[in-house]
From TrEMBL:
Keywords: Aminotransferase, Pyridoxal phosphate, Transferase. The modification N6-(pyridoxal phosphate)lysine is found at residue 209. It comes from Waterburya agarophytonicola KI4. PROSITE patterns: AA_TRANSFER_CLASS_5. This is Alanine--glyoxylate aminotransferase family protein. Signal peptide: none annotated. It comes from the Bacteria. One of its GO terms (molecular function) is L-serine-pyruvate transaminase activity. InterPro entries: Aminotrans_V_dom, Aminotrans_V_PyrdxlP_BS, PyrdxlP-dep_Trfase, PyrdxlP-dep_Trfase_major, PyrdxlP-dep_Trfase_small, SP_NH2Trfase/AEP_transaminase. The lineage of its organism: Bacteria, Bacillati, Cyanobacteriota, Cyanophyceae, Pleurocapsales. Residues 44-346 form the Aminotransferase class V domain.
Length: 381
């Protein structure tokens, strides 16, 4: 028999009612959220097999197809953040022994290398200095040298602020019998992106960057070419939670229970995608471009320079070189504590060298650009 001494107050802690500061999130994500999204998120959850929830899932799939410009049947939201959707992509695409070529030109390229290796891929890399992108010619040469089953590229490298051009890449891949995976985490909802027209086979994203939604449910899409590879696997996908052959039965007509979906995160995702559709993709992409250009010229007026060539600069994330003799961390700290504005420092190779400024989704607005430039000028002086 177990004897206890009863409930101990040792484990009791004193807490106050939640009160978070009103930050302006101008870093690499999360970004601030349209109040409409927060309000959708606070609606009471229904069951994950409730007919009204199943109808909402179908709406998410249609709204995602619009945002991504795709007809892919297997277009869903993965439960978890962008990294879960990234893991889902690799788990379902990579079979042990597949040659997987990864374009590494920043932090997230390295994460793809790590994950593809864990799923048994024979991983090869092509690299570029952080802040640059691959030319079509370089991609062609590497496809010819490595003859991969899969090429994985990051469209919008959030660690560097560079946008990888994708037109023509899939044609090369498909000529070589290779599938194309694209990380669209910082491009979906902010940067021109055409899944079908560009021939992308698998793509994933997140909710808290260009879509302007809290983190939690992450877009995923897969072409029929990729589904065919999946269906021909001799062994099951080695990740049960993210196995698309199982998830497709929950998101498809069979509605087979798999796991309890994060209901409220999907309420939020639906609302943020509705906002994307209402605004219109072209309008939204233009808005991101215009506000980024306003930021870039304001930075130039402050004597600051951007790390990425103008031609390949992302509108959703700008890397700014920290001038010699300036303590980058101290400036970011001051912006946060004195102005409630969050920006980020550099990652990896760019650590200590750049600030990262995000203008994503709901946050991509002229008044935010002005607030930041004004605060930055004051703290740098
Ligand atoms: C943020 C990010 C991820 C990871 O997404 P999380 O939502 O943080 O898990 C992956 N790739 C890129 C390019 C990102 O910017």
């Amino acid at each position: 028999m177990v004897t206890t001494t009863g409930i101990s107050d040792r484990y009791r802690i004193e807490t106050k009612q939640l009160d978070m500061p009103p930050r302006l999130l101008l870093g690499p994500g999360p970004a601030n959220v349209n109040p409409r999204v927060l309000s959708a998120m606070s609606i009471s959850p229904v069951g994950h097999l409730d007919p009204t929830y199943l109808a909402l899932m179908d709406e998410i799939r249609d709204l995602l197809r619009y945002a991504w410009q795709t007809e892919n049947e297997l277009t869903i939201s993965v439960s978890g953040t962008g990294t879960a959707a990234m893991e889902a992509t690799l788990a379902n695409a990579v079979e042990p022994g597949d040659v997987v070529l990864v374009g590494v030109k920043g932090y997230f390229g390295n994460r793809l290398v790590d994950m593809a290796g864990r799923y048994g891929g024979d991983v090869r890399t092509m690299t570029k200095p952080w802040g640059q992108v691959f030319s079509l010619e370089e991609i062609k040469t590497n496809l010819e040298n490595h003859k991969p089953a899969i090429l994985a590229l990051v469209h919008a490298e959030t660690s560097t602020g560079a946008c990888q051009p994708l037109e023509g890449v899939a044609d090369l891949c498909h000529q070589h019998g290779c599938l194309l995976i694209v990380d669209t985490v910082t491009s979906l909802g902010g940067v021109p992106l055409y899944i079908d027209e560009w021939g992308i086979d698998l793509a994933y994203s997140c909710s808290q960057k260009g879509l302007g939604c809290p983190p939690g449910a992450s877009p995923f899409t897969m072409s029929s070419r990729a589904v065919e590879k999946l269906n021909n696997r001799p062994k099951p996908v080695p990740n049960w939670y993210l196995d698309m052959t199982l998830l497709a039965k929950y998101w498809g007509e069979q509605r087979v229970y798999h796991h309890t979906a994060p209901i409220n995160s999907n309420y939020a995702l639906r609302e943020s995608l509705r906002i994307v559709a209402e605004e219109g993709l072209e309008q939204r992409w233009n808005r991101h471009q215009q506000n980024a250009e306003m930021l870039w010229s304001g930075l130039a007026e402050l004597g600051l320079s951007c790390h990425v060539d103008r031609e390949h600069r992302l509108p959703t994330l700008t890397t700014v070189r920290i001038p010699d003799g300036v303590d980058g961390k101290a400036i970011a700290r001051k912006l946060l504590t004195e102005y409630n504005i969050e920006i980020a420092g550099g990652l990896g190779e760019l650590g200590g060298k750049v600030w990262r400024i995000g203008l994503m989704g709901y946050n991509s607005r002229p008044e935010n650009v002005l607030l930041l430039l004004d605060a930055l000028e004051k703290v740098i002086k």
